[in-house]
């Protein structure tokens, strides 16, 4: 059965924008061949798009902006680079090689891992730009309102040991979760990922009892993780570039004992 | 040697500066003011520099920079949220879907492509709420793909498509009203459009494919 006008209208812009391919495109073109109204609309919209660009060319960049940007970047403190940031390929190879050795030596038993922990670690590693920047944890929480399908509790803060930096949305198992970044003592960074626990998420590898709750801690690739299932039906996963014991202590004293 | 002095400033500028005109152009059309646009571009560049480690070489630098610019814009202009509330009024534009199509082809085209002034088009675009202005700018003026736009806007491609659809319809409605007011075209009601077309609501490829599968 061919496409009707309503179906064609739904994807008309995708066609005009060159985003249709394969059978969608063939079906759309077949419809245009039989429907003058849709063919007319499509032509009109294509010309509208072209005309808009014709009317609104890119403005010229002001002369001094380029120079001002250059000076502003020069004035920035030079970023410290860890060797693996300066030579990522070499380090990736070295890590892969040593991982292979570890696997050969330590297999067949691997530490229990979970894709969620992997994701939390890679989110921490990549350190992508945050959607909201604020030192106020409640302002960060406010930003999440309306964007998540659960209520994000305001994370505790502490002027000395837990300063909020901001947050961003993350996609955890096809649902939005909240990711909050803290600054913790000695310039270390700590990430907290909160997402709904609608099925069993496996955490690992070491179970500790902290603040009366089972918390799973571990570390790998220079990042420690701590995770627990909250009584509010949410999962909490912490990642930080501090050691396992320090992270466990932080989670216990900043997070669990105050709630 | 654990740390080395970063030669990255030169690398950074070499990678990023070619996108300056794009960034400035989008910033101008989002802020509608040259001074604000320059500040927004500068903030974007500095944040990009600070996050340069997280940029993966070989990935899409243009989309990455635009995402930073968009987030900076949102943080600066809290009215982004406020503007969403105004959308209630703007929704009425859906009632005018196809007004341009209702004109005879010559009238509609000459209205848009011949006698309308660029200044009027600029003003009509500037009057769109930011949330709908952005996808129109990215798709129509800067030629980004839906996937790039999804990266920039931080939402799924389906959401990009529906915002783009709404943004374009709003813009066309504004231009149409202007053209009628200034006597460039005569106002006519759509009589000839197929009835099912006016109800078209699905603007998402996945939804379209599902409906095709479901309906046989």
Structure keywords:
heterodimer, A: 259 residues, alpha+beta, Arc Repressor Mutant, subunit A, Protein Transport Mog1p, Chain A, 2 domains, 8-stranded antiparallel beta sheet, 8 strands, 22% strand, B: 216 residues, mainly alpha, Rna Polymerase Sigma Factor, Chain: A, 0% strand
Secondary structure layout:
The complex is a heterodimer of chains A (259) and B (216).
Chain A lengths: L4 H6 L1 H5 L5 H13 L1 H20 L7 H13 L7 H4 L1 H19 L8 H12 L5 E2 L3 H8 L18 E10 L2 E10 L3 E9 L9 E5 L2 E8 L2 E7 L4 E7 L3 H13 L3
Antiparallel strand pairs in A: 1-2, 2-3, 3-4, 4-8, 5-6, 6-7, 7-8
Helix pairs in contact in A: 3-4
Chain B lengths: L7 H9 L3 H12 L2 H17 L10 H16 L2 H12 L8 H4 L2 H11 L2 H9 L3 H12 L4 H8 L3 H25 L13 H4 L6 H10 L2
Helix pairs in contact in B: 2-3, 2-4, 3-4, 4-10, 8-11, 9-11, 10-11
Give your account of this protein's structure:
The complex is a heterodimer of chains A (259) and B (216). Chain A is an alpha+beta fold and 259 residues long. Chain A is built from 10 helices and 8 strands. Chain A has helices spanning 5-10, 12-16, 22-34, 36-55, 63-75, 83-86, 88-106, 115-126, 137-144, 244-256; strands spanning 132-133, 163-172, 175-184, 188-196, 206-210, 213-220, 223-229, 234-240. Chain A starts with a helix and ends with a helix. Residues 1-6, 84-105 and 189-202 of chain B have low confidence and may be disordered. Chain B is mostly helical. Chain B folds into 2 domains: 10-82, Orthogonal Bundle (Rna Polymerase Sigma Factor, Chain: A), CATH 1.10.1740.10; 89-190, Winged helix-like DNA-binding domain superfamily/Winged helix DNA-binding domain (Arc Repressor Mutant, subunit A).
